[in-house]
Amino acid sequence: MTAVLFDFSGTLCRIESTESWLRATLAATGTRMEEPQLSAAAAALEVAGALPGGAEPASVPEELAGAWAERDLHAASHRAAYTGLSRQVRLPADDLHDALYDRHMTPAAWTPYPDTAQVLAELRQRGIAVGIVSNIGWDLRPVFRKHGLDKYVDAYVLSYEHGVRKPDPRLFAAACAELGVEPEHTLMVGDNRAADGGAAALGCRVHFVDHLPAAERPDALLPVLDLLRNAELPPV
What we know:
The chain is α/β, with parallel strands linked by helices and 236 residues long. It has 2 domains: 3-14 and 110-230, HAD superfamily/HAD-like (Rossmann fold, 3-Layer(aba) Sandwich); 15-108, no CATH class. Helix content is 41%, strand content 12%. The chain contains 11 helices and 7 strands. It has helices at 18-29, 35-48, 65-69, 75-86, 96-104, 116-126, 141-146, 159-162, 169-179, 193-196, 222-230, and strands spanning 3-6, 13-15, 110-112, 129-134, 155-158, 186-190, 205-208. Strand 6, helix 10 and strand 7 form a beta-alpha-beta unit. Helix 1 packs across helix 2 (35-48) and helix 1 (18-29) crosses helix 5 (96-104). The longest helix has 14 residues, at 35-48. GO terms for molecular function: hydrolase activity. InterPro entries: HAD-like_sf, HAD-SF_hydro_IA, HAD_sf.
């Protein structure tokens, strides 16, 4: 293996809880909510799937179907889809929905998994190229910079910048091309078998981790180092 491609959300970093997301936004905007109303709103936002990187929507309203389908292909669609889901929940002020969306893009909303820096640093030491391949509608590079991870990344291949998303092999091919590596010498690490498993069609090997809260997944990335060390990967 000469390169490793990583998914972002649920693989290297985890978004904050819906309640934390709402509380931080309320604090930043100086908005007050009583505890029972806050807890109820957070639960409703969770069901609505309004937090990008969080739970999937229980259902997508018909009027949001178009934006939802293209959320990872265009920044405007991503914002429209998620603020639209958020607006299914009544909040004290309408502008809170855009403030919530803005909050989720901040580095403070994301926590690297405990072993993320260790794994990326060792890959850099070994001279193995690292790429980030994400279905996303916004620029995640500031998150990596703020958490001190950018120095380990050689390429960012984001769906909204390429107009194609995983599992389409073209996104993985773009990452391999940018890194100057062959797919058969590349490992893709992700948490979504349908999306990240698409790399197998290109000839990449694939390894999966579970999308869990950061505190509940302390060392799931460490096996990646053993896989590379042994140079034998399990079949997809």
